[in-house]
Design brief:
424 residues, alpha+beta, Helix Hairpins, 2 domains, three-stranded antiparallel beta sheet, 16 strands, elongated
Length: 424
């Protein structure tokens, strides 16, 4: 959430940011409500002052045994008007909060302005795309050949766009998760947590998924709980409504969770195989940091995610997203996109974002500075990484002519030394 004072004092900057994001919001309506609210509060305070003054006069008259019937009538009238003012202010507060909750974050000045297709900027690439002396197979064909994933039975027991890993496929999925958790905890300094996969509405609102993105979320019918779209939600909310001492910052967490997304807006996109699914596994990284360090922390967060892919020796590119490509809550975001030989496409496996104090304001996460003053922390999160598309790239890039898939050296210890998965 943006600071109301900031919006009030920088309305043109906020309007430009909305235009750059291609978001149609009436900032003037918010400012009009803010102005009306301040007027009502001013009138209410004036009336309260007059009421208190008259109450003092009544006390003096009562002490002298004078008649105060008229004054008491005026006090009653004033109290009624004050209640009316409070009610009007309460109604305006609700309208303002509803508007504030749908205003996205301000993009950082380094974020390219424009659409995803035109303005996203590739900032670096790593590794070489594999070359084959045969036509590389798509991962769906390879998975069927290796008998490691069963999409038909997944569809039978759940529905379309769900995954059933089996045999060495299930082991490979587990190996990737354990490999990433070990890397982030042992080498990158993150504390592992294992949070609930269900969260309440306040948690979803705190990180910015609600109210704007509710149609993309799975909500329980009889309870106001949501299946998490990412571990970002429960992990960021670990410190909701808390004050952290400055000497405890930065705080780094990593977590494995399943992630659930309805993908309501995915019509027309590539949804074949594991590319776009309703449930997938992901290892997440979340940071709570001091504001002055947050953009350095973003760069190191991206490096942490890249290390996963480098150790698996998979070619990728890092893309700086444009103003129309970054998420609702982000001020700046990098995507990491793997090359998948059989799909002949780059697939996003990680988004690393700095939210500045946007989430911290919504979730009320502050830190106590050394001088005793309170300020909002900056929050960051990044996929470290999502496994479904990672598995696509791994299977397609490490395939051989007969359909065998080689296992990267970094993963072999997690596969009990297994070096390859052969067709049945």
């Amino acid at each position: 959430m943006l600071d109301l004072k900031f919006i009030r004092e920088n309305s043109e900057l906020v309007k430009k940011a909305m235009k750059d994001r291609n978001v149609n919001l009436d900032i003037d309506e918010l400012l009009k409500l803010d102005g009306k609210r301040r007027e009502l509060l001013k009138e209410a305070e004036k009336l309260k002052y007059e009421k208190n003054k008259m109450s003092e006069e009544i006390g003096k008259k009562i002490a002298k045994k004078n008649d105060v019937k008229n004054e008491k009538s005026q006090i009653k009238s004033m109290s009624q008007k004050i209640s009316e003012f409070d009610e009007k202010v309460g109604d305006i507060d609700k309208k303002m909060v509803n508007l504030m909750l749908i205003i996205p974050n301000i993009p950082h000045k380094s974020v390219p302005i424009g659409s995803e297709q035109e303005a996203n900027k590739v900032v670096r690439t790593w590794g070489k795309e594999p070359k084959f002396d045969f036509e590389p197979r798509h991962h769906v064909e390879l998975c069927e050949l290796l008998d490691i994933i069963d999409l038909k039975r997944a569809s039978k027991i759940a529905g379309s766009f769900f995954i059933l890993y089996k045999g060495l496929g299930a082991r490979l999925e587990r190996a990737l998760i354990n490999f990433m958790l070990d890397l982030h905890t042992k080498e990158h300094g993150y504390m592992e947590v294992f949070p609930p996969f269900l969260v309440n509405r306040k948690s979803m609102t705190g990180t910015g998924q609600l109210p704007k993105l509710e149609e993309d979320m799975y909500r329980l019918k009889d309870d106001d709980y949501f299946l998490i779209p990412t571990a970002e939600v429960p992990v960021t909310n670990l410190h909701r409504d808390e004050v952290i001492n400055e000497d405890k910052l930065p705080i780094y967490y990593t977590a494995y969770t399943a992630c659930f997304r309805r993908e309501a807006g995915s019509y027309g996109k590539d949804t074949k195989g594991l590319t776009r699914v309703h449930q997938f596994d992901k290892v997440e990284m979340v940071k709570f940091v001091r504001p002055e360090t947050s953009y350095d922390e973003l760069e190191s967060l991206v490096k942490n995610a890249e290390k996963v892919i480098q150790l698996l020796d998979l070619p990728y590119r890092v893309t700086l997203l444009s103003t129309q490509g970054i998420s609702f809550a982000a001020s700046k975001c990098y995507d990491i996109e793997l090359w998948a030989a059989g799909s002949k496409a780059h697939l996003e496996v990680s988004s690393c974002s700095n939210f500045e104090d946007f989430q911290a304001r919504r979730a009320n996460i502050k830190y106590r500075q050394k001088n005793g003053k309170l300020a909002y922390v900056h929050t960051l999160n990044g996929s470290g990484v999502a496994t479904a598309r990672l598995l696509i790239a791994l299977i397609e890039n490490y395939q051989t002519k007969d359909g065998t898939v080689l296992i990267p050296k970094a993963l072999q210890p997690y596969m009990e030394g297994l070096k390859e998965i052969k067709p049945l």
